[in-house]
Amino acid sequence: MEQTDPTVLISEADIQARVVELAEQISQDYADREQLVLVGVLKGSFIFLADLSRRMTIPRVIEFIAVSSYGSGSQSSGAVRLVMDVRGNIENRHVLIVEDIVDTGHTLNYLIGMLESHKPASVKTCALVRKAERAEVDVDVDYLGFDIPDKWVVGYGLDYAEQNRTLPYIGTITPTD
Ligand code: 5GP
Description:
By secondary structure, this protein is of the alpha/beta class. It has a single domain (11-151), classed as 3-Layer(aba) Sandwich (Rossmann fold). It is 22% helix and 34% strand. The protein contains three helices and nine strands, in the order E-H-E-H-E-E-E-H-E-E-E-E. The protein has helices at 12-29, 46-55, 106-116, and strands at residues 7-10, 36-42, 60-70, 76-84, 94-102, 122-130, 143-147, 152-154, 170-173. The strands form two sheets. It has a six-stranded mixed β-sheet with strand order 4-3-2-5-6-7, with helices on both faces. A three-stranded antiparallel β-sheet has the order 1-9-8. Helix 1 crosses helix 2 (46-55). The chain is globular. It starts with 6 loop residues before the first strand and ends with a strand. Bound molecules: guanosine-5'-monophosphate (5GP). Guanosine-5'-monophosphate is lined by residues 44, 69-70, 100-107, 152-154, 158-159. The site of guanosine-5'-monophosphate has 16 residues, from strand 3, strand 5, helix 3 and strand 8.
């Protein structure tokens, strides 16, 4: 596959500054609660979760969940499928879902329902980026990094066919499929 460098949409500095703000806000909001369970959605959220969690100042633990909703490129394969559930017990605990990107909203909507079935004390959501104009379901993002235009983005955890995940910035590419 021919690859050109992605065009920078959100710079490394802007991402890092926003991550600090989000971590401070979350740390304030959860200051008087029991230990927070951060649930990262694999694979795309792994870098965002790592940076965000290290900037927090409250007691916290990390869990991961994996879903698959897209094929190897940018085309949706339809329904959301749970690939890996959380390992720890989240009953009666405060849960914050950490997502890389909210596109149509189906994945986050599914995850909220799925995690609520574990009977946590609360479920809130955090996403680095959201394509607001693509929304198909009304799903609350309690902590949002950036609203972005309807373009395929890569970097800072996000891929195109498993490429470009480790770029320090978020960039746009034109998918070839
Ligand atoms: P939704 O269910 O909100 O439509 O889609 C969420 C999932 O779609 C994300 O977790 C991600 O896997 C994928 N996705 C949607 N748009 C993009 C994009 O621009 N770049 C990348 N890398 N993944 C995307």
